Automatic annotation (TrEMBL):
Primary subcellular site in the record, as a coarse category: membrane
Subcellular location: Cell membrane
Keywords of the record: Cell membrane, Electron transport, Heme, Iron, Membrane, Metal-binding, Transmembrane, Transmembrane helix, Transport
Name of the featured protein: Formate dehydrogenase subunit gamma
Record family assignment: Belongs to the formate dehydrogenase gamma subunit family.
Named cofactor requirement(s): heme
Domain Cytochrome b561 bacterial/Ni-hydrogenase, residue spans: 16-193
Membrane-crossing segments per the record: 26-50, 62-79, 122-145, 157-183
InterPro entries: Cyt_b561_bac/Ni-Hgenase, Di-haem_cyt_TM, FDH_cytochrome_b556_subunit, Formate_DH_gsu
Length: 217
């Protein structure tokens, strides 16, 4: 394969993510952590102590929306890059229907996955919906610049939606992190950009076969 390398032990490796893709992923991840902490600090008095991580309540209110814009921009770059890889196909519905086999690690019973499986594609679109919802609702409640232009009832709805989308995306990212740890070798892909020959063939066999065909042309 043209994009096949070997590690120090001679095991074959395949490129999965470019340096630019990894940089945007980790920028988005870093912003998410900051937003989750600052958002919780602003959400309830019981978690207000988290604002001390950002220099106090005033700085938390100032920084939170700007970090959100950075995260949205970085995530939008990833969406543009991976959009065509995450379109649902007939096999994805079957993959999702066999979630029991996924949990029990019976991957041999699953339809062949392309670059991303049905679960990853579902997460992709959940994140798009949540990110878009957070951006729109965030602009509605951004007092320093925008909220004065909207009716109070709309601003209140925006606050409710912002909290709802925030809760959903936190849960989705927890699932994402768990899956990355559970599927051994996945974190390496986003840290080093490569996966092993065996990992690709086991978890994303159709993608592996496509890469093999490319190398023979």
């Amino acid at each position: 394969m043209e994009n096949l390398h070997r590690d120090k032990d001679g095991n074959p490796l395949i490129d999965r993510y470019s340096p630019d893709e990894r940089n945007h992923h980790w920028l988005t991840a870093g912003c998410f952590i900051l937003l989750a902490l600052s958002g919780l600090a602003l959400f309830h008095p019981a978690t207000a102590w988290l604002s001390m991580l950002f220099g106090g309540g005033q700085w938390t209110r100032i920084l939170h929306p700007f970090i959100g814009l950075v995260m949205f921009g970085s995530f939008a770059t990833l969406v543009k890059r991976f959009w065509h890889h995450n379109q649902f196909e007939p096999g994805d519905k079957e993959w999702l229907a066999q979630i029991g086999d996924v949990i029990n690690n019976h991957e041999e019973k699953l339809p062949k996955s392309g670059r991303y499986n049905g679960g990853q594609k579902m997460l992709f679109f959940v994140l798009i919906i949540c990110m878009t919802g957070l951006l729109i609702s965030g602009l509605l409640i951004w007092r320093a610049y925008f909220s004065a232009y909207f009716p109070i009832d709309l601003v209140r709805l925006g606050a409710l939606l912002h909290a709802t989308f925030g809760f959903i995306i936190i849960c989705a990212i927890i699932v994402h992190i768990y899956a990355g740890i559970w599927v051994r070798g996945s974190i390496r892909a986003m840290v080093r950009g490569t996966v092993t020959y065996g990992w690709a063939r086991k978890h994303h066999p159709r993608w592996f076969e496509e890469e093999a065909r490319k190398s023979r042309k």
